[in-house]
Amino acid sequence: MRIAVTGKQGQVVSALLERGSVAGVEIVAVGRPELDLVDRASIRAVFSQIKPDVIVSAAAYTAVDKAESEEELAFVVNAEGPTAIAEVAKGLEIPIVHLSTDYVFSGDKQGLYVETDATGPVSAYGRSKLAGEQGIAAANPNHVILRTAWVYSPFGANFVKTMLRLAETRDALNVVADQRGSPTSALDIADAVIAIAKRLSADNDENLRGIFHLTGSGEATWADFAEAIFAGLKTKNGKVVSVDRITTADYPTPAKRPANSRLSNDKLKQTYGIVLPDWKESTKVVLDRLL
Ligand SMILES: NC(=O)C1=CN([C@@H]2O[C@H](COP(=O)(O)OP(=O)(O)OC[C@H]3O[C@@H](n4cnc5c(N)ncnc54)[C@H](OP(=O)(O)O)[C@@H]3O)[C@@H](O)[C@H]2O)C=CC1
Ligand SMILES: Cc1cn([C@H]2C[C@H](O)[C@@H](COP(=O)(O)OP(=O)(O)O[C@H]3O[C@@H](C)C(=O)[C@@H](O)[C@H]3O)O2)c(=O)[nH]c1=O
Ligand SMILES: [Mg+2]
């Protein structure tokens, strides 16, 4: 099976390239310059040459704060581009698996978010990703939209790498303790995406299509996540960094973030039998590679 995935250096595309060889699946990464999400002509040209069985739409404008001042560009990259890719997939009669985000929700709900809950993004990034979900669903019924969250990995830019970098020069860090979600390893996402892509290309069942939540098991605040990272750092090289637990109000940012980002993964478990490992276990795996 051949999977075309958008982007070249991103976390999820990098994880797919690594995990694809383990799973015996050919992964073809398509990104700039051949495929630029702001250039519709490049989107139409590239996939018919690759002849994939499934397209994975992983490329995105992910700079959450910067998107507040570049909302138009975020919409082109996160909504118009992926919608055009879904149209291409429709023309090729193949499924598209698209990555979306917890940031499509407001964070005001008390419990876990399920797939049918009302969306209500509170940031430009979240609005652009929601528009992407809607465009894809309208363009190609043969789609799976995977809402994940708090992605980290040995690749690209992410919270784990930021914490380790800051730890080089600091003994204590202020980290928000009133936003709750589930850190998710891109390596675990890649394994799930490959399993889902295999099922989709073999089975037309419409129950396999639609929106699914896909996050690491367990939950944490960003402060909990930072503490787990620094616990791993201490074990590895003895460096001690303490976390001062602060509120969102004490950490002003251009973009608002949901206070509650916790997503129920029951639908994915029931439909596909997929459950991601606990975030603490996967954090250790990533720290082992980074340290
Ligand atoms: N990171 C996170 O915490 C979360 C991410 N997601 C979603 O998961 C998906 C994967 O995220 P992640 O791997 O972390 O993303 P990254 O930020 O690591 O990578 C972004 C990717 O998008 C590509 N890209 C950006 N702009 C363009 C463009 N104009 N044309 C072509 N490619 C472009 C980049 O290209 P290049 O290779 O050239 O740099 C890169 O490969 C995204 O859809 C994201 O919205 C969902 C929840 C959380
Ligand atoms: C660096 C730093 C961040 N923070 C806070 C800010 C923020 O609330 C939280 C996480 O910071 P980040 O900049 O990594 O967060 P952010 O870029 O908003 O992460 C999001 O990215 C997009 C792409 C998604 O789709 C989301 O699921 C989520 O992963 O931690 C601190 O409290 N202290 C710090 O030293
Ligand atoms: Mg960020």
Automatic annotation (TrEMBL):
<protein>
    <recommendedName>
        <fullName>dTDP-4-dehydrorhamnose reductase</fullName>
        <ecNumber>1.1.1.133</ecNumber>
    </recommendedName>
</protein>
<dbReference type="InterPro" id="IPR005913">
    <property type="entry name" value="dTDP_dehydrorham_reduct"/>
</dbReference>
<dbReference type="GO" id="GO:0008831">
    <property type="term" value="F:dTDP-4-dehydrorhamnose reductase activity"/>
</dbReference>
<dbReference type="InterPro" id="IPR036291">
    <property type="entry name" value="NAD(P)-bd_dom_sf"/>
</dbReference>
<dbReference type="InterPro" id="IPR029903">
    <property type="entry name" value="RmlD-like-bd"/>
</dbReference>
<comment type="function">
    <text>Catalyzes the reduction of dTDP-6-deoxy-L-lyxo-4-hexulose to yield dTDP-L-rhamnose.</text>
</comment>
<dbReference type="Pfam" id="PF04321">
    <property type="entry name" value="RmlD_sub_bind"/>
</dbReference>
<comment type="pathway">
    <text>Carbohydrate biosynthesis; dTDP-L-rhamnose biosynthesis.</text>
</comment>
<feature type="domain" description="RmlD-like substrate binding">
    <location>
        <begin position="1"/>
        <end position="290"/>
    </location>
</feature>
<dbReference type="GO" id="GO:0019305">
    <property type="term" value="P:dTDP-rhamnose biosynthetic process"/>
</dbReference>
<comment type="similarity">
    <text>Belongs to the dTDP-4-dehydrorhamnose reductase family.</text>
</comment>
<keyword id="KW-0560">Oxidoreductase</keyword>
<keyword id="KW-0521">NADP</keyword>
